[in-house]
Amino acid sequence: MVEVGAGFSEKAYAKLNLYLDVVGKRSDGYHDIVGLFQTIDMYDELFFIQTEDVGQIVVESNVPIEGQNLVERAFRKFKEFYPVDFGLKVVLKKRIPMGSGLGGASSDAAATLRFLAQRCGIPHSDILEIAVEVGSDVPFFLIGGTAIVEGKGEKVTPLPQISGYTVDLFCPGVSVSTAKAYSMLKETDFKKGPRPIERLYEAYVKHEHEVILRMSYNVFQTIVCEVYPEIKTALAQAWSTDPIVAQLTGTGCCVFALREHSGLYSFC
After folding, report:
1. Which of 15, 170, 206, 267 sees the fewest Cβ atoms within 10 Å?
2. What is the reaction catalyzed (predicted)?
3. pLDDT in tens, 223-240
């Protein structure tokens, strides 16, 4: 967190799913996943300014926010757990495309929780429970870097950070609903990814390109490419740049092309 004039700023980094498989559907309607997540140095920036409107939040964004505002949700969930004796104005500078699979909204929510925890003197570890209630990807974004993520997203195992890789992004601009993508899954789609996921992580650490290519996986890639031809085209464009691997991130719409050098964004 950085103090800026009368307020503070936080960066909210984007993420890639280097691996994403669904292992089953839960009784609560969510799905259990296993994934290898990695942040990259594309980021939104949030400016937090305290106000006298106790318990109230106002979010100003440079782009219209469609659907639920997770920054507001994070603030209201935090208030359910801890007293807040101030109001908050959040100025959100979006750079991460919405509906892209890069996790921008969840990362913004995590940045908000980090600010609130520091402002209120709450240990970082104590806000994990709140993060889980705000959104499935929010717990990972509290930590960032490289991690294996399991359950519905609440089980985050941080790993020594992968370094030495860059990516170019191919984002066709269609918005893919996460709920719709999950609804298209069939039970026969579960547990199809190569195992163990730790071998893919090891391949990244050792720069074993052939193993990275063989073990990279996203359960949603084939499904969303069938429904959204624009994503299929973006994937073909990514492969045409001769990357180590090209793959959908999240439920889409963005595709990343992985390379060791010369990509626009770096692992961070």
Report:
1. 206
2. 4-CDP-2-C-methyl-D-erythritol + ATP = 4-CDP-2-C-methyl-D-erythritol 2-phosphate + ADP + H(+)
3. 999 999 999 999 999 999
Q: Read off the tokens for 18.
A: 């280097």
Q: How far apart are the C-alpha atoms of 20 and 141, rounded to whole Å?
A: 16
CA proximity to 254, closest of 11, 10, 16: 16
Q: Do the beta carbons of residue 75 and residue 119 sit within 8 Å?
A: no
Q: Is 137 a catalytic residue?
A: yes
At 215, the amino acid letter reads: M
**Which of the residues 21, 44, 137, 168 is marked catalytic?**
137
Instruction: Render pLDDT for 110-138 as a digit per residue (tens, 0 to 9).
Output: 999 999 999 999 998 899 999 999 999 99
pLDDT on residue 148? 98
Whether 21 sits among the annotated catalytic residues: the reply is no
| CATH of the structural domain 2-158, one choice from 3.30.230.10, 3.30.450.70, 3.30.365.10, 2.60.120.260 | 3.30.230.10
